[in-house]
Design the sequence.
């Protein structure tokens, strides 16, 4: 059994982080330069961590598979970033942000981590403004805010519909500065393909140079993974095509536990699927729900009609009806399932019947078309490009799509995994969002981890490591890891089967969406585990990966990632199967109230499931870390 | 209510630039793509073509792509001779087949510029942009040292204009569109974004001098005011920012001369 000591500091919740910072060990400035830290990934968490650690004096190597750190998928986040600034004087506070996030996560996150997140949220906004992030402002020159789902205050900071882009470019600018100063070595177009563990500690990684195909060994005193989420296990998602699980999956296979893999977020407002050739789904920001109203026709026979001809009294504004106090701003999991129920009831709209309307006609009456354009113009443009429809004239059609994964590698309060020296930040870890993430909280967590948590906590580990003692890349563990990777690459190229990689990715995605998507059942999950096993066997036998190992080979890159997704998919189903309750984004049809809401089982499942790899073809061990709620009373989550 | 063109499938002929590596000679290769839904994106069509190639054990067409929603700046196709294709204000990934006639010939090439060497097929190396950023495209603000965000009021007009410039996705279409392979729109966007904000003033001169010097060293050409860059920019960033950068550059150059003298004078006193 893995050692899952969460190392949550003792004492009252609001004092834990302050006290912990004062108690943990420090590395003196002259020694910092003797430690080298590898940061894999350069999204919000990775680039903020790399630049912050470099500024402190550590030697940093930043490894990204993109051609530039600025491409990381944090860039696509649209709506905003939460912070408990209370600039609107509307009663916000660190406690409220903490409480909303815990409740939003359906009481399946760690109180101490979430409270820390809420505390440092205010510093993030300060930091980003100092870096020149052009947040939206009022005429007086002060920062503007808007509301997001799951909150009754206005605490979201934004930069038009491109908040993620602007925050990432801020973090990228800090990373670029430290690269230019010679403090960070930037390694682009290298994919991490294995973690190197020496004497039980993470001491390096193996990368594949995506241009030459060459494998490289990198040694370090500590390794940070900030490699994002794994939603592309569903094939169709709002993730970038390149987003993958390989870095964290291979770390899992080296001993790092995987926390709550089945917790995935299905975002309610995405553009519906239009054909089987489709490669991705596009999100329409949740911020649209501030002014847009979601509805379906009351009568099934109206579904094919032009929506503008359906009078108000024949429309079912179902979120406003079911959740009057939160209305269209109900949290994502709740809104997604409500949309699914409407479509299951035969009242979905569009060609496939898998869609609901997001209607701005009332907002246009209130604000004028120009007012709506100023707030959401770029989103309306995106919608028009993809669907060829004008959403100022006719309501948008939206449907839920996979958007985020709350699960990830298990970490303690210091963000260190159960493998000492391996730290995991941002979406790649499991820690802050419980079973459902609230809107505008992903950006907050990525930057909190990188700018304000890891700079403190990594010292506590490094202080225990002798300066200059990191192993040489000639050590047996490096050689063995490199040989493993080379063997896998050779095996993929050798298969010379009949189907392209995408074929297997699509089939995996369909299995996952059907059985491990918005609604899950015991029978479905058991079936999925069987079918994924068969798919895996067929993949290795029948995949066609042309080209060589020693060149730029995108088919080979995809093949390695899909091989990992297939294994992860199985683990997700196993996790969903053993979690005999419904909570947040995990909805088991067997466990629901009569009105269709989630039925949690706090007696048996108020814990983190942390899966431990035991070897190929062996069933992994499910470890449990109990969640102790001291400050918040666990209750039935209601947005009614 | 789906696009009116949705029902009729189309077929196209692709002329694709194939080049095995940076040192290899490239050539155009023709591919037929049939029975395509016009609502398919151009990149999704490449996926379909590549699936066929892979099924036959042939090397798929290498092309750069990631987010497929026009924000990451990875995709970089010359489509019928135009960076990012026929439409204004979109990236290659936001180009849909409904923009082409049934039976059309579509020519696909990588962005071409000396500082953007081809890595393979349709992928070119744009790391020169990163080097320009590293030479000054930032405001130095260490984590932990910032003052309260509302302590620095920024007039809405300045913030909005800075945001217009900050939208640059770093794709390099401006370079590919320019007959001189100038990167001035890219550099001007960053110089303007940071220079328009009060937080960016301390490093304003160093920034513009450092970024322009690195741009020149990387081998990008000069601007001759044709504005092809703005026309090709997926975010429609205005060439007015180039004028702003030129003013900044001139002022910084002059100030740097006087600053050097004043330091010498200070040292002698």
Sequence:
């Amino acid at each position: 059994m893995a050692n899952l000591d969460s190392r949550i500091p003792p004492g009252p919740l609001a004092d834990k982080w302050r006290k912990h910072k004062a108690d943990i060990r420090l590395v003196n400035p002259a020694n910092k330069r003797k430690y080298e830290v590898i940061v894999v990934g350069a999204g919000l968490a990775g680039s903020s961590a790399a630049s912050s650690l470099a500024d402190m004096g550590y030697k940093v190597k930043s490894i990204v598979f993109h051609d530039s750190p600025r491409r990381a998928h944090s860039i696509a986040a649209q709506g905003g970033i939460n912070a408990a600034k209370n600039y609107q004087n509307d009663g916000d506070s660190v406690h409220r942000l903490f409480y909303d996030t815990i409740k939003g996560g359906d009481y399946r996150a760690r109180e101490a981590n979430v409270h820390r997140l809420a505390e440092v949220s205010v510093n993030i906004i300060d930091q980003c403004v100092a870096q020149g992030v052009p947040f939206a402002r009022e005429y007086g020159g002060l920062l503007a805010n808007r509301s997001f789902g799951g909150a009754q205050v206005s605490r979201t900071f934004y930069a038009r519909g491109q908040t993620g882009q602007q925050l990432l470019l801020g973090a990228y600018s800090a990373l670029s500065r430290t690269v230019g100063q010679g403090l960070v070595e930037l390694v682009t177009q290298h994919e991490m393909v294995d973690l190197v563990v020496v004497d039980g500690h993470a001491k390096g990684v193996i990368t594949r140079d995506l241009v030459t195909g060459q494998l490289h060994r990198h040694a370090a005193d500590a390794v940070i993974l900030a490699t994002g989420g794994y939603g592309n296990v569903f094939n169709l998602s709002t993730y970038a095509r390149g987003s993958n699980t390989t870095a964290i999956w291979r770390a899992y296979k080296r001993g790092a536990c995987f926390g709550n893999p089945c917790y995935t977020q299905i975002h309610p407002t995405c553009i519906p699927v239009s054909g089987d050739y489709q490669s991705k789904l596009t999100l329409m920001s949740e911020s649209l729900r501030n002014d847009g109203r979601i509805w379906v026709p009351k009568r099934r026979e109206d579904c094919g009609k032009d929506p503008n001809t359906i009078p108000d009294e024949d429309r079912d504004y179902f979120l406003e009806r079911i959740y009057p106090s939160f209305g269209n701003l109900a949290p994502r999991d709740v809104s997604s399932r409500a949309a699914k129920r409407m479509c299951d009831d035969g009242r979905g709209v569009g060609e496939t019947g898998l869609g609901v309307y997001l209607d701005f006609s009332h907002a246009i009456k209130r604000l004028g078309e120009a007012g709506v354009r100023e707030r959401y113009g770029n989103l309306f443009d995106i919608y028009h490009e993809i669907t060829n429809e004008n959403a100022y004239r006719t309501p948008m059609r939206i449907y839920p799509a996979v958007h985020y994964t709350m699960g990830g590698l298990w970490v303690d309060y210091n963000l260190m995994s159960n493998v000492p020296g391996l730290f995991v930040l941002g979406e790649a870890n499991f820690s802050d969002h419980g079973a459902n993430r609230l809107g505008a909280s992903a950006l907050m967590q990525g930057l909190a981890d990188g700018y304000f948590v890891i700079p403190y906590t990594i010292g506590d580990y490094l202080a225990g490591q002798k300066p200059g003692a990191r192993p040489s890349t000639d050590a047996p563990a490096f050689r063995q890891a490199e040989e493993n990777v080379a063997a896998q690459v050779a095996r993929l190229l050798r298969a010379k089967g009949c189907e392209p990689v995408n074929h297997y990715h699509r089939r995996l995605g369909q299995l996952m969406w059907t059985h491990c998507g918005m609604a899950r059942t015991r029978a479905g999950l058991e079936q999925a585990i069987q079918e994924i096993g068969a798919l895996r066997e067929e993949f290795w036998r029948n995949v066609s990966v042309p080209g060589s190992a020693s060149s730029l080979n995108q088919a080979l890159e995809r093949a390695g990632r899909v091989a990992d997704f297939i294994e992860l998919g199985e683990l997700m189903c196993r996790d969903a199967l053993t979690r005999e309750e419904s909570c947040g984004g995990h909805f088991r049809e067997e466990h629901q109230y009569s009105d269709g809401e989630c039925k949690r089982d706090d007696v048996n499942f108020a814990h983190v499931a942390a899966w431990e790899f035991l070897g190929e073809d062996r069933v992994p061990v499910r470890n449990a870390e109990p969640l102790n709620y001291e400050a918040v009373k666990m209750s039935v989550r209601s947005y009614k | 209510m789906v696009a009116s063109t949705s029902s009729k499938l189309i077929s196209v002929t692709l002329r694709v630039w194939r080049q095995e590596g940076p040192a290899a000679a490239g050539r155009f290769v023709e591919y037929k793509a049939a029975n395509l839904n016009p609502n398919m994106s151009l990149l999704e069509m490449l996926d379909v073509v590549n699936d066929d190639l892979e099924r036959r054990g042939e090397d798929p067409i290498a092309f750069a792509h990631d987010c497929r929603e026009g924000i990451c700046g990875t995709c970089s196709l010359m489509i019928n001779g135009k960076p990012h294709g026929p439409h204004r204000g979109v990236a290659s990934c936001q180009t849909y087949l409904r923009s082409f006639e049934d039976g059309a010939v579509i020519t696909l090439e990588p962005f071409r510029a000396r500082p953007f060497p081809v890595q393979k097929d349709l992928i070119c190396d744009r790391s020169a942009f990163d080097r320009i950023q590293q030479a000054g495209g930032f405001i130095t603000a260490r984590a932990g040292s910032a003052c309260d965000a509302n302590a620095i009021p920024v007039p809405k007009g300045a913030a909005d204009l800075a945001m217009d410039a900050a939208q640059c996705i770093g794709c390099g279409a401006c370079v590919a569109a320019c007959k001189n392979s100038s990167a001035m729109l890219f550099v001007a966007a960053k110089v303007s974004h940071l220079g328009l904000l009060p937080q960016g003033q301390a490093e304003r001169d160093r920034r513009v001098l450092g970024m322009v010097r690195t741009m020149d060293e990387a081998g990008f050409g000069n601007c001759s005011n044709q504005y092809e860059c703005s026309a090709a920019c997926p975010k429609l960033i205005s060439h007015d920012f180039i004028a702003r950068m030129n003013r900044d550059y001139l002022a910084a150059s002059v100030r740097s001369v006087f600053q050097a003298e004043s330091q010498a004078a200070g040292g002698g006193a």
